């Protein structure tokens, strides 16, 4: 009880402070604080006083009397009976103060009783005294309370003798005391029988209910809807738009005119000036009155302000007038242009002539006044500044003097700052001011003598009849006629009535003129109007909803004004006639510039009022009466009930209500309200123009946001939580701020900064830098998408559950029981797969099994005969598989002369190198398993990180050469000194991601052997087994058989489960899905591709990518007479575009297909892009070409190109540019799944899918299942490829520069790799090599070997040269360096070795660069 | 930087044991445990993972399977976020003798130093359908979590359905070092100072 009282008084006092003080506003918090403080303080003082009196004063007579008569109130006495009268001692010190009697007595009483209930030596605390909020306790009668307290305090017998809590026996009687009930009806339980009761009106329905006790009958709200005016409507013609604008401007004009602020302000200005004049003059005449003198500056201040205001108003007037005239002119020109009139609007401009002379005089006088005032103003300012200046100067001078005195102690005074010598202020020029004023006045004031223009808008114009209008306009008018509209009235969001449907008139006004009488019981929660428009007969659309304010209780029917409420709708309407539509941009200009977009909008004129009853009593729910009468319990709790919803936004009302209902300011329930009220009542009582959720949040912040932002540790934690790439796996965030170095963020910030800055330094080529930048951005966005998707889980991500076995598998399972335990031919069992997440460094190993190699180049004796150079193979030669003609005689000769080659294989991965033993001969057999450790980037073994590993496995083939180094013969006798040299022969590169996705790679690969290997020859070794050779020699080159896998086997991550948005037809997509499902159900291992994802993340039907495109003209012109060479050249061009697997750039999330122009622009892409481009080129060259979706080694799932050449099919590998016949066994393409052309997809439904064993004739429906067939024909999908590819010629100068830079970098690198040896460069050899390279490019690396070697031999006769050219498409320098490093040229450590390195860059159109690097090592023959 | 005074990390040493389990109707169970902790935590000593012996029920102790598998591990950390959790998974043979999972459970290592006893309710994921339930019962390949650590994380749990299975009792002895020095208060202060600090805090506020 006490707490309530205190808080109320406190609260009231707060409010007194607020309401009484008329002081200028001071910060509210302090005042509240003060108020509360003062109350608390007063309480404390009183209590203290009481205590003091207890201790010091002797009891007065009255107290003594009270004590002895035991005149306590009954309650206190009853309390005491429960307790022993221990506290009698204190009673002689009953309180002295009369007014505090009750509180104190009770307090005293409580103190005592409390003391017995508290532990020893504890002071009782009263939380409410400390200003804390304590809720109200529920009422329990004091006697019960006492009984309970007594029981707890005194009686220890809670437990019975049996150790259980004391309890009474079960009070439920065993026998029934009530007679059983029998039902009258059969089959219904008597308890469930229903009885009829008369309905009672339920009163307490919701919080807005008023007058729960006395029901006063229905109240009435009258809603008058008089009409609707559209300020914009989709059917508006252009003229209507202008007319609406004009009308609006005119309304504004009228309103301004009515206010007439300009004149008002001008008058005020005059009055002020007069007053100033008077006081100055008066001051001259009589003694200067101090008051008048004092008020002059105030007046002046006022004048300045008024002048500024007036100028602003005048300017507004002027611009408004100008705008009106401008719109009118536009309208007139529009009418002239369209030759008909739609609106009856006309604007008259009435001129009011003025007396030229008088006007001019007034004008001049005004200007003069203003100038004078301004001058004065400036002068004042000048004086002020001058004074300041003087003061400063004085200071400076004194400092100077001091300086002069202490010349000896210069070093000391130097420490202080030397004051700058002040500059005297400048006085403004009066001419300048005049100039300024005149300019200003000219701009917005009427010129003297100019007539005053008064616009007048009339609706007297005539509208051109429909017969004379053009067709579009007639259509528009007819459309308007068809339209009509009505309004629904919603009370508390329920429709209560609606107006009749009225047509929209040609001037877009609708007249309703209906009054709705709403009989209501409760205070309205909301009133809403819905405006509907109907077009023709059927369609009805909701245009807008608008809320009507619930009227004040004083607004009664009859006196209520008609109000206009504006509405607007964001509906988009586009019309095919003159109507401008809504939400659609249109323009008045002929050229379509200056577009504007208007939304349907308008005004509803209505009025809402309370009805007046028969006896003149307003039928209003009794809110108003209750406000003045007794505060009902309900109202004091709910603010809305008492002041209405509209009152909630009115701070003053709310505050008043709060004061009246005596809200407890300490109750947390009221916290928001109290804060609002204190804010509102403190300063200006206005609603803030911002809206804030959780306005109390700020108080709960530990530190300010800025401080939080500054904290490095917090930032680190935040970035890690956001999974930013650099910090995702950051371990152990340091505990102290000081331990976090700025360096951690440097990389990240640098990346953020450079996101938009293209840094060409690292790329050697500005274009690639741009592309890299773009790719980086795409990658980031895709990765972000992936990161979001990663947090969506499916059951299968969390729970391993066996599939329900089908009958077949069950059957097999039974069958398996009968199988032999140890079969003679064991099958390879699937290894257990490991989820990548619980792996760490060193757990994963890469196993490379090198089995054998074929046809390795052999060393050539120096004196070897020149072989006739081979001719490039033609298509025919390949298919017929003719063994090369060589005479047996030569053969024998060759066998005898054979110089051994001692090849070995070295596998390098992540700079770890492993090698096999050395075998002998050109067809070695190693069968060795090499084990290489694998390290994931950042120690992150999640599948998504593994997918983005960019490392490649290099499998290098070397020849081990032994040289005798015995200097002289006598040494030879005692020991053998040999030096081992290794010569690089070729390599196979396999990206790690391929291994990761394929799980194992097993097959025979073509070794990438440089076109020229100095000192080696690639001979046809027809010696041993003819039958075998005849097959093998179909393809030239060396081959190596490998088996690569990862131990333990990793599960590749799944692609993102995300449905991409698309622009394809829904039917097509369904058909595609069905087709895919049918195909995969028959051949689950064959991939069927119908839709792919383009760069913007939309799925696109695959055939849209295939379209004949023009290859660069340069390539077509190179060999005009041989289509085959041209085709090869084109394929080479495509292969020269750098290869960049999507799964690396986009982390295996999704396979993105870019169109050919994007591909050429990015100059990077994976197999699909290469294949699509090549296929398009072949189509463009008039060939028959298809895209093959299939499986190849080592790429895995890939895309190849199939062409039909002279009734033979050729398979092109787009990423190498090689082609193979259909029956070529060394074709890397192993499985064919489907074929894609520009207008169809064929799925392979043949038994086999190896290209050798299938028929490529797509017309056979039994072999190929086509997507579009006769029943569902090709709908003619437009291609997403461009019409034509435009090639930019490459910049020759840049290419030459690039060439130089690459050469320099490579040379530096080689020197860097040989830190212990001197690296000498043989310039002569280098220049020779440089000379060869363009030749190689010209011949595409073929047929130059022998001439070349001969020439080199001739020129460098006394050197043993070993070297080779490396050819690569250019993307970055990194791969080039890697390639050179992997050849191990630098590993030769013969002291006298010399090196030669030449680089040649050949530019093809569109900046496709082919890079040749020729590296050679030279050892002088002795 | 270390010279700047004060420790850089705090240490939490956990010892104790996985005492016993109550799995009504099941016998011959063994359990595995592992610790799951945040990125800022590093185990400095002790075993992170372990596996117990197979325990059989006896007539003496009615329902308990006693493992008494000792735990002993020390962590160092810079951040209480990611406080270590122990994840338990219990396995045992079913009717046909297949080894199946009998329960997963996780609990945070107590943050207060001292001896604590925790009883972990255990649960197993449910089959998605009745047919699957039957086949999984028959084949002995019941649904399992892909990784027992799933039960220590909150993400993605909404897609699973589990059945409660039994209880495991673990005792922990926790010792911390340098936590107070670094400003982390884990020990409850005695009543008086506690209540005082509350009111003081409010006054300040």
From TrEMBL, chain A:
Pfam families the UniProt entry points to: C2, CC2D2AN-C2, CEP76_C, CEPT76_peptidase, DUF5523
GO process terms (BP): non-motile cilium assembly; protein localization to ciliary transition zone
Residue stretches of biased makeup (Acidic residues): 91-112
GO cellular component: ciliary transition zone
Top-rank taxon, per record: Eukaryota
Coiled coil regions in record: 364-399
Region of interest (Disordered), ranges: 83-117
Keywords, sorted A to Z: Coiled coil
Ranges where the C2 domain occurs: 845-1004
Descriptive protein name: Coiled-coil and C2 domain containing 2A
Organism the protein comes from: Nothoprocta perdicaria (Chilean tinamou)
High-level lineage: Eukaryota, Metazoa, Chordata, Craniata, Vertebrata
Gene assigned in the entry: CC2D2A
């Amino acid at each position: 009880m006490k707490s309530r009282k205190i808080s109320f008084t406190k609260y009231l006092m707060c409010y007194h402070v607020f309401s009484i003080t008329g002081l200028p506003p001071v910060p509210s918090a302090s005042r509240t604080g003060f108020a509360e403080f003062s109350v608390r303080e007063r309480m404390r003082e009183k209590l203290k006083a009481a205590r003091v009196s207890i201790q010091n004063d002797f009891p007065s007579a009255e107290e003594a009397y009270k004590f002895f008569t035991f005149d306590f109130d009954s309650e206190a006495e009853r309390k005491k009976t429960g307790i022993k009268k221990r506290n009698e001692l204190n009673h002689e010190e009953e309180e002295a103060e009369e007014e505090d009697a009750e509180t104190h007595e009770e307090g005293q009483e409580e103190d005592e009783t409390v003391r017995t209930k508290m532990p020893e030596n504890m002071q009782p605390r009263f939380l409410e005294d400390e200003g804390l909020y304590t809720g109200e306790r529920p009422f329990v009668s004091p006697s019960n309370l006492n009984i309970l307290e007594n029981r707890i305090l005194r009686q220890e017998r809670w437990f019975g003798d049996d150790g259980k809590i004391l309890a009474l026996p079960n009070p439920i009687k065993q026998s029934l005391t009530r007679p059983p009930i029998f039902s009258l009806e059969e089959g219904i339980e008597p308890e469930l029988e229903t009885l009829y009761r008369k309905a009672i009106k339920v009163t307490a329905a919701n919080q807005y209910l008023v007058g729960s006790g006395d029901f006063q009958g229905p109240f009435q709200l009258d809603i008058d809807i008089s009409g609707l005016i559209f300020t914009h409507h989709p059917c508006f013609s252009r003229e209507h738009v202008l007319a609406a604008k004009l009308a609006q401007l005119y309304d504004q004009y009228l309103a301004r005119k009515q206010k007439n602020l300009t004149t008002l302000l001008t008058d005020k200005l005059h009055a002020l000036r007069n007053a100033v004049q008077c006081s100055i003059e008066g001051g001259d005449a009589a003694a200067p009155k101090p008051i008048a003198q004092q008020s002059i500056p105030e007046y002046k201040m006022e004048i300045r302000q008024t002048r500024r205001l007036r100028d602003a108003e005048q300017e507004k007037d002027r611009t408004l007038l100008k705008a009106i005239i401008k719109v009118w002119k536009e309208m007139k020109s529009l009418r002239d242009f369209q030759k008909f009139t739609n609106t009856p609007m006309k604007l008259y401009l009435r001129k009011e002539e003025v007396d030229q002379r008088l006007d001019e005089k007034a004008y001049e006088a005004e200007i003069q006044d203003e100038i004078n005032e301004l001058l004065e103003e400036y002068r004042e300012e000048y004086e002020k500044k001058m004074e300041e200046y003087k003061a400063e100067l004085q200071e400076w001078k004194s400092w100077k003097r001091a300086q002069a005195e202490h010349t000896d102690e210069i070093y000391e005074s130097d420490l202080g700052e030397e004051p700058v010598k002040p500059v005297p202020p400048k006085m403004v020029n009066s001419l300048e001011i005049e100039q300024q004023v005149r300019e200003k006045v000219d701009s917005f004031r009427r010129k003297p003598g100019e007539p005053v223009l008064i616009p007048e808008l009339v609706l007297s114009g005539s509208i051109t009849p429909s017969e004379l209008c053009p067709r579009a306009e007639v259509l528009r008018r007819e459309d308007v006629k068809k339209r009509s509209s009505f309004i629904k009235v919603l009370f508390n969001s329920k429709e209560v009535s609606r107006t009749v449907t009225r047509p929209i008139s040609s001037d877009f006004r609708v007249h309703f003129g209906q009054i709705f009488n709403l009989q209501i019981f409760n205070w309205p929660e909301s009133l809403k109007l819905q405006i509907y428009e109907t077009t023709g007969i059927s369609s009805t659309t909701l245009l807008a909803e608008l809320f009507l304010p619930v009227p004040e209780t004083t607004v009664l029917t009859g006196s209520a004004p008609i109000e206009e409420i504006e509405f607007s709708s964001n509906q988009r309407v586009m019309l095919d006639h003159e109507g401008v539509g809504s939400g659609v941009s249109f323009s008045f200009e002929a050229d379509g510039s200056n577009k504007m977009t208007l939304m349907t909008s308008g005004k509803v004129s209505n009025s809402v009022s309370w009805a007046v009853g028969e006896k003149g009593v307003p039928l209003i729910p009794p809110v108003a009466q209750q406000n003045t009468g007794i505060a009902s319990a309900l109202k004091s709790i709910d603010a809305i009930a008492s002041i209405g919803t509209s009152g909630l936004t009115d701070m003053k009302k709310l505050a008043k209500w709060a004061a009246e209902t005596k809200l407890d300011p300490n109750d947390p329930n009221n916290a928001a309200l109290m804060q609002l009220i204190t804010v509102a009542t403190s300063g200006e009582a206005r609603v803030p123009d911002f809206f804030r959720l959780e306005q109390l949040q700020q108080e709960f912040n530990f530190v300010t946001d800025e401080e939080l932002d500054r904290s490095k540790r917090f930032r680190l934690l935040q970035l890690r939580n956001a999974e930013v790439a650099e910090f995702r796996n950051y371990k152990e965030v340091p505990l102290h701020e000081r331990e976090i170095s700025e360096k951690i963020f440097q990389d990240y910030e640098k990346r953020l900064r450079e996101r938009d800055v293209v840094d060409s330094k690292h790329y050697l080529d500005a274009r690639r830098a741009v592309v890299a930048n773009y790719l980086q951005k795409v990658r980031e966005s895709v990765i972000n998408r992936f990161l979001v998707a990663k947090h969506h889980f499916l059951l299968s991500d969390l729970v391993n559950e066996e599939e329900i076995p089908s009958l077949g598998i069950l059957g097999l399972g039974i069958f398996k029981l009968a199988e032999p335990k140890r079969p003679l031919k064991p099958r390879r069992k699937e290894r257990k797969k490991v989820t990548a997440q619980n792996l760490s460094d060193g757990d994963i190993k890469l196993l490379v099994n090198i089995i054998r190699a074929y046809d390795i180049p052999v060393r050539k004796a120096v004196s070897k005969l020149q072989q006739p150079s081979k001719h490039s193979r033609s298509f025919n030669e390949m298919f017929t598989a003719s063994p090369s003609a060589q005479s047996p005689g030569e053969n024998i000769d060759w066998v005898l002369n054979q110089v051994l080659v001692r090849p070995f294989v070295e596998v390098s991965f992540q700079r770890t190198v492993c090698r096999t033993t050395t075998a002998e001969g050109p067809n070695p057999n190693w069968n060795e398993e090499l084990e290489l450790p694998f390290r994931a980037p950042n120690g992150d073994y999640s599948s998504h990180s593994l997918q983005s590993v960019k490392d490649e496995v290099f499998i290098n083939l070397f020849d081990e050469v032994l040289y005798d180094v015995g200097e002289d013969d006598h040494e030879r006798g005692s020991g053998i000194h040999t030096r081992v040299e290794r010569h690089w022969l070729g390599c196979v590169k396999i990206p790690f991601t391929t291994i990761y996705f394929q799980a194992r790679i097993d097959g025979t690969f073509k070794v990438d052997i440089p076109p020229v290997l100095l000192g080696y020859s690639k001979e046809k070794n027809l010696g041993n087994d003819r039958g075998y050779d005849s097959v093998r020699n179909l393809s030239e080159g060396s081959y190596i058989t490998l088996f690569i896998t990862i131990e333990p086997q990793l599960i590749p991550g799944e692609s993102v489960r995300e449905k991409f948005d698309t622009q394809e037809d829904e039917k097509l997509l369904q058909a595609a899905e069905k087709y895919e499902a049918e195909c995969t159900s028959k051949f689950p291992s064959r991939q069927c591709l119908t839709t792919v994802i383009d760069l913007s993340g939309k799925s696109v039907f695959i055939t849209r990518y295939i379209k004949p495109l023009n290859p660069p003209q340069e390539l077509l012109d190179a060999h005009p007479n041989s289509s085959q060479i041209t085709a090869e050249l084109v394929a080479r061009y495509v292969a020269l575009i750098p290869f960049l697997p999507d799964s690396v750039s986009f982390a295996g999330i999704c396979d993105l297909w870019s169109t050919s122009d994007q591909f050429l622009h990015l100059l990077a892409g994976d197999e699909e892009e290469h294949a699509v481009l090549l296929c398009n080129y072949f189509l463009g060259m008039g060939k028959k070409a298809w895209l093959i979706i299939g499986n190849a080694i080592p790429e895995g799932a890939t895309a190849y190109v199939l062409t039909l050449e002279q009734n033979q099919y050729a398979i092109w590998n787009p990423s190498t540019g090689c082609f193979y016949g259909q029956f070529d066994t060394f074709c890397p393409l192993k499985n064919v799944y489907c074929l894609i052309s520009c207008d169809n997809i064929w799925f392979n439904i043949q038994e086999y899918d190896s290209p050798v064993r299938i028929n490529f004739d797509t017309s056979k429906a039994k072999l190929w299942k086509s997507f579009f067939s006769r029943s569902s024909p090709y709908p003619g999908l437009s291609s997403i490829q461009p019409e034509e590819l435009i090639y930019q010629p490459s910049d020759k100068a840049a290419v030459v520069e690039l060439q130089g830079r690459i050469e320099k970098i490579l040379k530096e690198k080689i020197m860097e790799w040989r830190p212990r040896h001197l690296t000498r460069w043989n310039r002569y050899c280098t220049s020779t090599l440089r000379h060869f390279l363009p030749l190689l490019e010209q011949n595409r690396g073929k047929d130059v070997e022998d001439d070349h070697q001969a020439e080199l031999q001739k020129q460098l006769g006394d050197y043993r040269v070993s070297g080779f050219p490396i050819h690569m498409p250019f993307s970055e320098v990194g791969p080039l360096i890697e390639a050179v490093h992997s050849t191990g040229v630098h590993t030769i450590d013969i002291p006298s070795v010399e090196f030669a390195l030449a680089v040649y860059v050949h530019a093809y159109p569109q900046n496709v660069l082919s890079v040749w690097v020729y590296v050679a090592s030279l050892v002088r023959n002795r | 930087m270390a010279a700047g005074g004060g420790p850089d990390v705090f240490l939490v040493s956990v010892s104790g044991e996985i005492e016993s389990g109550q799995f009504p109707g099941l016998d011959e169970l063994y359990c595995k445990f592992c610790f799951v902790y945040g990125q800022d935590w590093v185990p400095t000593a002790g075993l992170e993972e372990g596996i117990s012996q197979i325990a059989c029920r006896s007539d003496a102790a009615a329902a308990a399977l006693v493992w008494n598998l000792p735990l002993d591990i020390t962590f160092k950390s810079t951040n209480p976020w990611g406080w270590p959790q122990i994840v338990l998974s219990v396995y045992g043979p079913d009717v046909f003798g297949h080894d199946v999972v009998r329960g997963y459970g996780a609990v945070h290592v107590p943050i207060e130093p001292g001896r604590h006893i925790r009883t972990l309710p255990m649960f197993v994921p449910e089959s998605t359908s009745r047919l699957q339930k039957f086949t999984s019962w028959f084949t002995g390949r019941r649904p399992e979590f892909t990784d027992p650590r799933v039960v220590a994380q909150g993400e993605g749990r909404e897609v699973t359905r589990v059945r409660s299975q039994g209880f495991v009792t673990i005792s922990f002895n926790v010792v911390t070092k340098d936590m107070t020095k670094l400003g982390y208060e884990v020990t409850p202060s005695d009543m008086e100072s506690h209540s005082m600090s509350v009111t003081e805090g409010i006054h300040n506020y």
